[in-house]
């Protein structure tokens, strides 16, 4: 049982004012995992008030060196308690031990160093050349200043990564934060807040964590008049609601939303190896990743060969107990999500040819498992080729030439990521430049790093996380003119 049933507000561990808690099940066993504090409107108001007071006081936002110091303390503390963090994350997400090491824990803790350094090294003030305006000669500077109070709303699929990206970026830039994690994964956020409280010099009110089973608390945060910016990761439908709610106060919003990305395998690629790897990537974390390339596009002339390679990879993909280091896929996050994925699989049966998988796991009596699933003969306009499933469902689609591949890849309301594989980097680059996506990986050379901006085109979101653009999304721009010396 996870025992973390308190909120972090104004530097204190506090119960929800109502005394309410909520519980979740371990997705791998369906056993009760623990209880979390169920915040209500009064608690959210208290967290925002604490963040507002600390920001308006001014000392935090004025001291980049101290902010960097606190972030480095947080990194050190997370590293010291890394196995506790991993245990909680695996228990509440169903993420496998192997994936936690590869993506979900070690790398994201290491990434804090980048943003801590950026807090100190960033040039917050730049001079423009002297000029003559309508009012006469003028010197000018452009300042970048913290936005203020940031409301961070995070999803359940990569909770530590996304909590840290949003929180550390906002803090490094001099803002204060209210973090509202997904109801499915309250404890990773609560543990992060507790570590920050116990093991860093963060002043009270700078970082607040509000867990709640009530989705209305997220809506309250987005509409709150004392919150200056909302950073949200989640579905496109919820992102639209966030935009509408934030519009009442015309606050800035950063939205990282859904995806239906394509992996284009050109005819000069090592087709068997590339398709097998592409199919495997979709099954990592049970397909619960917004940037996964769930549509594999292959040359029509080699379609049978590609289908055989995809089938071999999907049938052999190791899944099961998340704590078994041999497994690369665990369960889906919840029974609700499993039902959603199975509904999409049933849609796929009517739209395409099911090659393998397509049901609950026959290996497991308990846990929210779904078999890795492969569909072929998929029309580019089919629902399973257009809608985000968020499950281990692989689709293979044929194309005629490079132009056709680009057209199929871009035939989506989304534009989050893409993959291009070719024997010629120059040819792959030409295709990558034509994709309407925020990121592209060529020949498995991945872009994921703390200095790489991440975000999408079209209905995959607004703005960028990570890198200089991500840092600057937490800053306002002020231009000052003054008489020349």
From TrEMBL:
This is Aldehyde dehydrogenase. Its EC number is 1.2.1.-. GO terms for molecular function: oxidoreductase activity, acting on the aldehyde or oxo group of donors, NAD or NADP as acceptor. Gene3D superfamilies: Aldehyde Dehydrogenase, Chain A, domain 1, Aldehyde Dehydrogenase, Chain A, domain 2. Residues 16-480 form the Aldehyde dehydrogenase domain. Belongs to the aldehyde dehydrogenase family. The active site is at 256. Keywords: Oxidoreductase. It holds the Pfam family Aldedh. The keyword Oxidoreductase applies. It is an enzyme of class 1 (oxidoreductase).
């Amino acid at each position: 049982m996870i025992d973390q049933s308190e909120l972090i507000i104004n530097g204190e561990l506090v119960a929800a004012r109502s005394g309410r808690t909520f519980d979740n099940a371990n997705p791998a066993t369906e056993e009760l995992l623990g209880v979390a504090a169920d915040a209500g409107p009064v608690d959210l108001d208290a967290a925002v008030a604490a963040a507002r007071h600390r920001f308006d006081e001014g000392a935090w936002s004025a001291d980049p060196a101290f902010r960097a110091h606190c972030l480095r303390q947080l990194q050190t503390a997370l590293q010291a308690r890394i196995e506790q963090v991993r245990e909680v994350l695996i228990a509440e997400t169903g993420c496998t031990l192997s994936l936690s090491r590869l993506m979900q824990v070690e790398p994201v803790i290491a990434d804090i160093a980048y943003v801590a350094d950026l807090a100190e090294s960033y040039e917050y003030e730049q001079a423009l050349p002297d000029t003559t305006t309508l009012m006469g000669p003028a010197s000018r500077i452009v300042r970048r200043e913290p936005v203020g109070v940031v409301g961070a709303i995070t999803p359940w699929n990569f909770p530590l990564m996304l909590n840290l990206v949003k929180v550390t970026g906002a803090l490094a830039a001099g803002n204060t934060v209210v973090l509202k994690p997904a109801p499915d994964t309250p404890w990773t956020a609560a543990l992060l807040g507790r570590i920050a409280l116990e093991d860093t010099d963060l002043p009270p009110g700078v970082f607040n964590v509000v867990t709640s089973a009530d989705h209305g608390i997220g809506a309250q945060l987005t509409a709150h008049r004392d919150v200056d910016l909302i950073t949200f990761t989640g579905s496109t439908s919820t992102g639209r609601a966030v935009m509408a709610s934030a519009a009442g106060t015309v606050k800035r919003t950063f939205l990282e939303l859904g995806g239906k990305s394509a992996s284009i395998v050109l005819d000069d690629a090592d087709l068997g190896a590339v398709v097998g790897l592409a199919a495997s990537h979709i099954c990592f974390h049970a397909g619960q990743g917004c940037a996964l390339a769930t549509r594999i596009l292959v040359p029509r002339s080699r379609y049978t060969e590609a289908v055989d390679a995809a089938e071999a990879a999907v049938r052999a993909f190791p899944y099961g107990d998340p704590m078994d280091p041999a497994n690369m896929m665990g369960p889906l996050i919840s029974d609700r999500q499993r039902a959603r994925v199975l509904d999409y699989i049933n849609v796929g049966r009517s739209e395409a040819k099911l090659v393998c998988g397509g049901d609950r796991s026959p290996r497991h009596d308990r846990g929210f498992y779904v078999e890795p699933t492969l569909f072929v003969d998929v029309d580019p306009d089919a629902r399973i080729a257009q809608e985000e499933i968020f499950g281990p469902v692989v689709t293979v689609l044929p194309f005629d030439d490079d132009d056709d591949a680009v057209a199929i890849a871009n035939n989506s309301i989304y534009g989050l990521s893409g993959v291009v594989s070719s024997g010629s980097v120059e040819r792959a680059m030409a295709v990558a430049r034509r994709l309407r996506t925020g990121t592209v990986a060529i020949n498995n050379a991945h872009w994921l790093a703390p200095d790489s901006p991440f975000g999408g085109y079209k209905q995959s979101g607004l703005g960028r996380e990570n890198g200089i653009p991500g840092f600057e999304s937490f800053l306002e721009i002020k231009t000052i003119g003054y008489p020349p010396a």
